[in-house]
Amino acid sequence: MSSPESGSYDATEAAPHGKPRATEWPLWEVFIRGQHGLSHRHVGSLHAADAESAIKNARDVYTRRNEGVSIWVVEAAAIAASSPEEKGPLYEPSNDKVYRHPTFFDIPDDVGAM
Amino acid sequence: MYAQMIKSTGKGVKSLDEMDPEERAFQERINAGGKIEPKDWMPDGYRKTLIRQIGQHAHSEIVGQLPEGNWITRAPTLERKAILLAKVQDEAGHGLYLYCAAETLGVSRDQLTRDLLSGKMKYSSIFNYPTLTWADMGAVGWLVDGAAIMNQVPLQRTSYGPYARAMVRICKEESFHQRQGFDIMMKMANGTEAQRRMAQDALNRFWYPSLMMFGPSDKESVHSAQSMAWKIKMNTNDELRQKFVDQTAPQAAYLGLTIPDEHLEWNEERGSYDFSEPDWDEFFDVLQGNGPCSVDRMEARNKAWDDGRWVREGLLAHAEKKRARKMAAE
Ligand SMILES: [Fe+2]
Ligand SMILES: [Fe+2]
Ligand SMILES: [Fe+2]
């Protein structure tokens, strides 16, 4: 009656994110650097035929309110990403290395600021 | 809302004990306020329901440009025209943020577009009503964007990361939309007698369709219960509708306009307004595609898609030619 039927998307489920399809412009990930000196930050993605138009589109879609002074675009298909299953091996080793944090060390107050 | 009557699996909410370990870990993460990201494991129903919901929301933003686009060339001043243009451009942006969020779930943009154009996927019922006078631009910003904000603000906390992030961007921009609408209403309501009548007429026509935006009562719905357990729906439709009425009734009074509901009355005991339900038969009829502008809207979207084809193909061919030339030069 109202919403699309379940199962409608079975055919497209397997399509990997970011892989260009025959009829579609490729997908680009957009990174923007704001005015205050922080690094470029991922803000979203968009479709465009090439890098040049991706930057123009990113200007229209992601910087309508002075959000940035620099834009990077990267074709989504060119990004390599870690997978959630690797979470353990990748990040657990740093859990037991508490000495990497300055608070691990007790420095007497007499020593002054450090 | 912008996504109305979204069906989830419809099987009823499972308890943690009934879930296999994967699903239990998923649900516990949601319960603890964690986010689900595109590559994480998720139940099939979660993914499909989200594609429907985010897709329908995206389609609403896109189709929602039409009733307001209708007035861009006829705005009363250059400033109003620039403001309306910026507002409509924001809505295009909202549609794009949301399509991108849906795409992270594995559906393609073209598929979503095809499903809108074929009528398989829906958009909000509200955009099937006509915008007859300039006062309608006021009513749409004030009431329609106002109702959308009610729903979108809590969705910033939704469990699916890309959807939540899209909502944060959208909510930042919506408040301008509602304010510019209310500003138009103030101008009209305090203008000449003819302008005041126009403002009242716009409120009369948009009041009940705005209440319909929240969808019929879903207190008993298994779909809603599932969506709420997954935190892709944060409030019941009735809760949001009540909140909207409570917020809007005093604003109408401020404008000196009358909400077209003789039963609208402050209820001291509940600390809320009592009000009349909209005509739900009309709602279902509009959703079926029988709204006053349903045919126009779909024709306009289909025409835009067909007319834009040579641009899409031309730019792609140009990009390929440039790439080939660059390769040859290297
Ligand atoms: Fe919007
Ligand atoms: Fe909107
Ligand atoms: Fe809006």
Describe the 3D structure.
The complex is a heterodimer of chains A (114) and B (330). Chain A is α+β, with helices and mostly antiparallel strands and 114 residues long. Chain A has a domain at 8-83: Ubiquitin-like (UB roll). Helix content of chain A is 15%, strand content 18%. Chain A has helices at 51-62, 87-91; strands at 27-33, 41-47, 70-75. Chain A has a three-stranded antiparallel beta sheet with strand order 2-1-3, with helices on one face. Mean pLDDT of chain A is 82; it is low at 1-16. With 330 residues, chain B is an all-alpha fold. Chain B has 13 helices and two strands, in the order ααααααααααββααα. Chain B has helices at residues 21-31, 44-63, 65-69, 78-103, 109-117, 135-155, 161-189, 193-212, 222-229, 237-255, 280-290, 294-307, 309-329, and strands at residues 265-267, 272-274. Chain B has a two-stranded antiparallel ribbon. In chain B, α6 packs antiparallel against α7 (161-189). The longest helix of chain B is centred in the middle third of the chain and has 29 residues, at 161-189. The termini of chain B are far apart. The relative contact order of chain B is 0.12. Classes of the chains: A alpha+beta (114), B mainly alpha (330). Chain A binds chain B through residues 1-9, 11-17, 21, 23-25, 27, 43-47, 49-50, 53, 60-61, 64-65, 81, 83-84, and chain B through 4-7, 9-10, 37-41, 45, 47-48, 51-52, 55-56, 86, 89-90, 93, 96-97, 100, 103-104, 106-111, 115, 120-122, 165-166, 169, 173, 284, 287-288, 312, 315-316, 318-319, 322-323. One fe (ii) ion binds next to α4 of chain B. One fe (ii) ion is lined by residues 61, 64, 91, 145, 148 of chain B.
